[in-house]
Amino acid sequence: MSHVELAEKTARLVSSLIGEYMVKVEAVNWLMVKMARGEITVVQSWRKNMIGIYAAKDGKIGVLSFEAENVEDVVKRLPQLLAKLQPSPFYAPLPEPTGKPVSFRDKAVAEAAATGEVSEKLEELGISELGDAAGKIDFVHRETVLLGSNGAELGYESTSFNGYVRVFRGERSGQWSWTSTRYEPGLARRAMSKAVELAELSAKLPREKIEPGKYRVLLSPMIVGNLVDSIADAANAGMLIFGMSFLQGRKPGDQVFSPSLTIHDKPRDTSLPGFSGFDDEGVATRDKPIVEEGVFKGFLHNSKTAKLLGGETTGNAGWIMPRAFNLEVAPGDMKPGEMLEMLDNGLYLTNNWYTRFQNYLEGLFSTVSRDAAFIVRNGEPVACVERVRIADYMPRIFSSIEAVGSERWQIEWWEVRTPTRAPHMLMKDVNISLPS
After folding, report:
1. Cβ neighbours, 10 Å, residue 338
2. What is the chain's alpha carbon radius of gyration, rounded to the nearest angstrom?
3. Would you call 46 helix, strand, or coil by DSSP?
């Protein structure tokens, strides 16, 4: 059964029991390549039909997600599941579908995902030349169908080629990531070369300890992508409703960040894998600013958050919570070498993890450096620092931007969930503490 026939079958079953529904079926071919110590250790492929069902009755909302087995058994339980729920304050009738398909299929990615034949591509990427390295590469081909009681009959096709590589030189390491809708070996090799460069530079330098305090800090696109993801989360109207947004109390037009910061949600950009011409309610997507020259432009809505807050959907549904599709940070005018010169004396942090909020409303967060982290003096890396922690307020550090790089990288990995095009950023007076 094709994914289209599966979607039609599921919609028929749901419609016989529930009057208001959306059915989303994704047929996914996914090839995953893992490496360790510079060698390929796993080449594994999956063919999945994923089914999502949104059902609403008497103000109650249920959302299910499952693989395409025993569809009848799952669907027949819907009325019982809804009967156990309380009416949701999030409920709003499904809007009129206005979306149009936007598709992009890269033949090389789709064939690799379907056949698992990637030996030539792996040789072309030069993985064997990395030395001691670990990481993961994904080739994904996805076909999506969305059917709904609101009249939505939509579908599109997409491909994704993304990965990350962590290169080791002794006890030191460097990591970088890439993402694209196309098989772009040059893009991947560029990211791998960056990881090698960081690892080898780190291995040459002595270690030094630093004291906690305020530092000028140059953040790599890996970290900028992670933190910008948090800004997009704060602009999610669902996070606002749940009291988990540091943009609470802010209105469109408020100057919240440095004029050097511009962030767009780019669902129509088919070079980044999160693209789509419609959201999960069938509403047309559109490219839009979240922050423009430091000015907050407004929250991301689906029909439910729009009803609760008296706004309009922005074409960013999730069935319950809105979401961004692709993120793009506007470039500055500083070339890569100039960023270190302008930093002069401070820290250059290249990767991070464990980003956590201690206070969502104030934007108080911490994140721990990972891999190569440099002490810079007179514009030159002179030493490596052990792991440090950025412990500061998100609005404050993005108000302290001194420079933005002109070169941008397309990043996606487990710490950057939304495909993001990001530059380097230089910030002043960033609070640095030491992990316990």
Report:
1. 16
2. 23
3. strand
Q: Determine the 3-state secondary structure of 234 from DSSP.
A: helix
- CA nearest 198: which of 353, 370, 417, 335? 370
Distance between CA 192 and CA 94 in Å, rounded? 45
Cβ atoms of 222 and 194 within 8 Å: the answer is no
| Per-residue pLDDT at 180 | 98
Counting as low any pLDDT under 70, the low residues of the chain are none
pLDDT digits (tens, 9 = 90+) for 36-49: 988 899 999 999 99
The Cα 431–Cα 212 span in angstroms is 8
Q: Residue 175 pairs with which residues in a beta bridge? A: 166
Can you list the positions of beta strands (E) in 58-151?
60-67, 133-148
Domains and CATH numbers, the chain: 3-201 (3.30.2290.10), 206-227+330-433 (no CATH)
DSSP conformation class of 95: P
pTM above 0.85, yes or no: yes
pLDDT digits (tens, 9 = 90+) for 196-237: 999 999 999 999 999 999 999 999 999 999 999 999 999 999
Vertex 179 angle, CA 175 and 182, to 5°: 140
What is d(CA 289, CA 263) in angstroms, rounded to the nearest whole number? 6
Residues constituting the chain: 436
Report yes or no: 301 and 360 within 8 Å, Cβ to Cβ: no
Determine contact, residues 432/212, Cβ cutoff 8 Å. Answer: yes
